[in-house]
Structure formats: C-alpha cells, structure tokens
Amino acid sequence: MRAQLLDADRPGDVVEVAEQLTYIKIDPTATIAPCEQTVLWSRIGWSYEPGQLQKAVEIDRLLFEYSGTFRPISLLPLMLPSMRRWPEREKTRQWLDANARFRADVLARLRAEGPLLTSDIPDTAQITRAPDGWTGTNQVPIMLDFLLRQGEVAVVGREGRHRRWDLAERVYPAHLPEYDDDEAARLLGERKLQAAGLARPHWYWTGVGKDSGEPAVVEGSPRKLRVDPDALAALDEDAGGRVAFLNPYDSLLFDRQRLTEVFGFEYVLEQFKPKAQRVYGYFAHPILLGDRFIGMLDAEVDRVRETLRVNAIHEFLPFEPEETEMVRAEVADLAEWLGVGVTGLG
Q1: Average pLDDT of every residue of the chain
Q2: Pairing of β 69-72 and β 63-66
Q3: What pLDDT was estimated at residue 130?
Q4: What are the start-end ranges of the H helices in the chain?
Q5: How many domains would you assign to the chain?
Q6: Alpha helical stretches, state H, 221-293
Q7: How far apart are the C-alpha atoms of 2 and 8, rounded to whole Å?
C-alpha cells in the first residue's frame, strides 16, 4: 500500500505520484471522473486540482504522455533504448516500410507547422490498415502512434480528449542520460518494483525483471515473487491505512493474479459485461480500507442535477460501524472534490 501511495501518509503533488507509480493511466470513462483524475485524487486527496496535472504535462514538462499514460520524464531515458528498437513485429515493420513517404510527410508537416492536432495532418498513406475496433480508416492516428513509440514525435498537450503533436526533439529535454539496453532494462525493472512493492517478475505484465529486488514468498501464492528491498527496510515506518476508492484502471488492480493471491480479491471489471450479468455495476470502484478490499462503490455523477448518485455500496462482509462511517466520509470528500452534492447514502 505504501508503494502505491495508498497509506495514510499522502503524497504532496502530481509529480511525486507519477515518479513513484511510474505511470498514470489515461482513460475517458467518467462515471465519477476520468481515470487520470481519480488516480491522483485517491492519492493526494482534497488538495488535488485537475489543473495541476495539465500544468505538470504541458507547462513544466515534468510528465510526458506515452501509450495511454502519463509518465515522469525521469523514466524517458530508460525507455529510449527499447523505443529505438521498436517495432519488433514484422507486420508493423512492413507497414512502416511501405509507408515511408507517408511517414516523411507527417514529420515534415510537424516540422513546418507543429504543434498540430491529428485532424490537421492529411492522410497520404500508400498502404492502409483495416479498422480493428480501436482505429478507423484514417491512417494518421496510426502513424502518429507508431512515431511516438519510436521516439520521433511527442504529445505536447490536449484539447479536450484530442492530442496535439510535435516533433519529439522540440518536446523532450535535450542531453538526457544514455543507457545501453541491458542497463536501461535493469533500472526500469527496479523502478517498476519500487512502484509495486511486491510483484511477480514478468517483462510485459509487470515490467519487473527476474533479478529485480529480492526474492519473496507469500503464503497462498505458488509464484516466484520479487520484493523491493527499500520497502522491506521501511516496514516499521507504518503510517497506518485509510479508505480509498480505486478507479477500475488503477495500477494497483492491473495484476489480477496478484490481487487474488496476495489480497484475496478476485476482481472482475464489469464494464463490458451485459447489464444482466453485472454484480456490482457498470464501473464500480473497489473500496480499499488499509490493506483490505472491503467492497465496491457503484456511483456516478449526475451533471444535470449536480450530484454524486450512490447506486450501491456493496459490502463483501458486513461493515463494522467504524468502517461504514469511514466509507461514508470518503464519499462526502469525493463529492466535495467534484463540487457536487450526494444522493443515495440514505
């Protein structure tokens, strides 16, 4: 919990959160608020304002957007070696090779006129990729995403949910530290383990290397786990726990196996389930109390009536009176942060 900044000792600002978590997921689903906003509120609390994130990204340049996340700029040097090797899939390389002129057109347009929205850049692709449910027929977003992954372009900001693009050389800091592939991977694995505290080594799911940190055995888990040695050293520095509502895309929830084996919490996102099959609600937020998952908050903001409507608070086990009071207080704090009233608490 301390590694994920969910203990009673709250962080002070957006950059501190991003540095520790290594990424803040971006997702527009806003039954309560978009993921990037609720992740930060659940850590920082009442003093967090959404404009602080925008300032850190677009003005201070202490965070950068990459692959649906905001990441601390300190992570960029560790990512650049793999970005320069990308793509590894032959099919993607073939598409880029076939669209070499299109790629040059996009880069030239940005160099001459950037920063630009995606809609400002014409589609001159020679070879097109069929829509796959995530992308449409316009090839510009695909090319920009690929160039982002290669470190050629960067997102300088957003207009609503629309990204504004420019050449990476005009966005990212100059004279960044240089690392070879092995050293970058090792340091990145250590950062990922510091963010998780305890993790199973897996290059994709966790980013934690098999030699990161120290080996750990957790009762009830058959897996080989790694633990952050700094987290072990600080075990006696326990600030206590608190209540937190976690966005369904919160990084703490990402590794479902770890949730089950370490926390005894079998989490299923019901967003894409038919309504009749949902148990807790379309976008219910897990409720964390200390180091225990105690229930699910099914709530949504009604902007017309300016209220946070609580449809249900699902209790995994009946709450103690003190737990009920703490959860209700957190709902009230959430509504105050959103600038709305509360209905449905009874």
Answers
A1: 94
A2: antiparallel
A3: 82
A4: 14-21, 35-44, 50-54, 76-85, 90-98, 100-113, 140-149, 181-196, 229-233, 256-263, 321-338
A5: 1
A6: 229-233, 256-263
A7: 9
Q: Is there a contact between 167 and 110 (Cβ–Cβ < 8 Å)?
A: yes
Residue at 204 is within a domain: yes
Find the domain containing 288 and state its range.
14-73+180-343
Q: Check residue 126 and report its DSSP letter.
A: S
- The confidence score (pLDDT) of residue 113 equals 96
| Residue 156 falls inside a structural domain | no
> Per-residue pLDDT tens for 145-196?
999 999 999 999 999 889 999 999 999 999 999 999 999 999 999 999 999 9
Under a CB-based contact definition with an 8 Å cutoff, are residues 122 and 55 in contact? no
Tens of pLDDT, residues 223-282: 889 999 988 888 877 778 899 999 999 999 999 999 999 999 999 999 999 999 999 999
| Contacts for 202 with CB less than 8 Å, ≥ 6 apart | 208
107 occurs within a structural domain = no
Q: Span 307-316, mean pLDDT?
A: 97
Q: Is the peptide bond before 131 cis (omega within 30 degrees of 0)?
A: no
pTM, full prediction: 0.94
Instruction: For strands 162-167 and 214-216, give the pairing.
Output: unpaired
Which amino acid, residue 270? E
